[in-house]
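As a warm-up, study this chain.
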Amino acid sequence: MTQRVRSAKGVVSDSRGSDDAKAKRKRISDKSNARVAPVFHFFSSTTMSTKHGFVNGFVLPGILFPALTALGVRLITNSLTVSGLGAELSAQCAPGANSSYIHPFTGVHGIDGFICGLVAFFHAELEPQLSPYLLYFAGTSGFLMAFPAIEAHRKGRSLFIAFPIIVGLLGQAITIGITLTIYWLAFIWTGASSRRADAHSHITKPQAESIIFATAVGSMLPSMGLMLFKDPKVTAYWQIFPVYASVAGLAYSFLRPTPRTTESGYKLVRQMYMGMFVSSAIMHLCIVGPKLLDPPALASFVFPSITPLPTTASLSAKADDFLKWDLIFAFGSSVLATLWFARDAAELIVIASWHLFAVPLIGPGASCTGIALWREAALNDEEVEPNPRFKQ
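Now compare it with the structure written out below.
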């Protein structure tokens, strides 16, 4: 009898040891998966578990956004080449041209020529008077710059969306419209659009402060200098403002005293988005609002020419048309991408309805910022068990 009891105890002990070993292996496996998931999230169960999720999370964006990229490349390139805009800009930067835009910024002829072309383009928007399209873009595009920076700071995000400086520099080099069609595809495919509230979805207070400082010092101030000074050298150095923003953010993070506890930066992020929402809406109402009751004037102002402008059109008119296409694809792809923020069909309908109402009245910049505000609140849902380190 005693032998049987001992034998039974041994079985129980072995069973417990086996369970403990299995639990340990599971924890190691979970940690390993957690490291891999941010990069290859579209292969995870949350996206690929069902046919419905696979189509919505992978196939559909894989069709729509590359199509937008291809269409954007074609239409924006045509606006540059067929209209003669590119040739006029190149003529101002040709060797021997009597142009104030030519400067040996780097000493490399090809790079300096490219910079000269950018300077010539923006001065077609700045002179003889500031283009309303450039002013509108500057006043309503805060969301386009801030959103990638905020998402890059979230814990567990994919490496594909971890460097907003790349988004900014590509936007300067190949237009922000084309760049964002690529960014949003990466954002959705890596699972960032389907992120839900948890202890890792928060932006910390130091991170939020760094983003705000970088946006103000590295983006807003250089852009104000661009429009106020109208100086070719200022315009040239403005082209790399994403670098200034990145350096400013890193410098702030380095110099800021390290807090003992990591507080949530939700309130700061919310305030930043609210400021962008108000400023974007005001800019839209001031520039586009007076034309809302005049459909022909509104259509002429908002929509670019379907066919490239004739070569006889003025340089400023061609530059305006180019910028319109850039605006269309930048904000159009952003409005489309926010539909993937919905957690169910009801939210999808609400987001789509919001855009239908808000885009004409307060503009696409404010409309997208409003959705970002709602998403940030959802990612900081009070119903979720909070991490004790994240206290408001």
